[in-house]
Amino acid sequence: MSALQAVCALLLGLWTAASAQAAPRCADDVPWQRVAPGVWHWSPVAEAEIAPANAGHVLPTSVVVHGGQALLIDPGPSEAHGQRVRRSLACRFGAQVRWIVNTHAHAENVLGNSAFADRVAAGTVQILATGATRAGMAQRCPDCLASLTTKAGVDAMAGTRIVLPTRTLTEGEVLRVGPYRLQVMRIEQGHTEGDLVLWDARRRLLWAGGLVYGQRLPELAQGSLDGWLAALDRLAALRPRVVLGNTVSVAPEASSLPPALTGTRAYLGELRAAVLNAMDQGLQASDATTVTLPAYSTWAGHAERQGFNAQRAWREMEPVWMVKSDPPAPPAASPPRGGASGSAKPVPPHPGTRPIAPETH
Ligand SMILES: [Zn+2]
Q1: pTM attached to this predicted model
Q2: How far is the CA of 140 from the centre of ligand 1 (A)?
Q3: Model confidence over 10-20: pLDDT tens digits?
Q4: CA separation for the pair 96, 28 (Å, rounded)
Q5: Nearest-angstrom CA–CA distance, 304 and 66
Q6: Is 354 inside any structural domain?
Q7: Does 346 fall in a domain?
Q8: Is 70 exceeded by the pLDDT of residue 57?
Q9: Structural domain contains residue 357
Q10: Residue 194 C-alpha to ligand 1 middle, in angstroms?
């Protein structure tokens, strides 16, 4: 070997050693997107219904990270999803999850708790939620785990266990991650029986859980139409710049709202109006599926969920329609409603109408 060859071999050896040292210590395969300093989300490739192709990942998993600690909001649908998040946070951010927030009791949001079961048992991770969410999970998660497994596939859900929240959050409580402050708001009877909202007032970031959808039909199964509409008005009054819900939506300018927030409100408002209008036309609950709202037919889940949403809305709107339609009571006794000389208004159906496709979230 010539002197030149020896030098080249030495340099090659040094370069190889340096390359090995510079190689990443772990593999991070999660495509986190940055929302603000310390705030990231991992969103699905497309807004879609739960299917084997997306393994149940149909909404963003988001995280607030600072100083090696992470607050994870809605850890996703499964053990595998949660494990990817856990590995990625350790790898990319050098962070350990200390807190998990479950915004509401839907399987695709909360079953990722499973990946942190060991750390929950060790007391190094707390799972935070409203009391209503904890109760909803205890009641429905056995069924919703089975339902999600049917939809997403056995492989996607392998090893997933139900891990319930460990601490109940109250309205007005503030969660602190380094310099970041997230105020807790509770919505009762909105998208579900108990929806948790987090509000970073300084940066106008709003975590809205299932209250805000993108191009996917909102799910009303466990919710209240009027409660949800009132909740969205309350959220809009905060004037958020970014909403992280079933999608991530950014206000295009300072004077406007994130379009997903206004879009969700538009859908629910049109559903309400259309159902009341159908009652005015004399239709019955069995006709609720004729309320199709074709303007939203391109949204994911329209075919699967619109009929059910209409029936759910119908049941809620019946007493509203009754009050709206009843004339003032006459001073003297009058025949019963619908009698020979009673109101000519159509009588809406009884409220016990069964939904066409009860969901098992
Ligand atoms: Zn939900």
Answers
A1: 0.84
A2: 13
A3: 444 444 444 43
A4: 15
A5: 40
A6: no
A7: no
A8: yes
A9: no
A10: 10
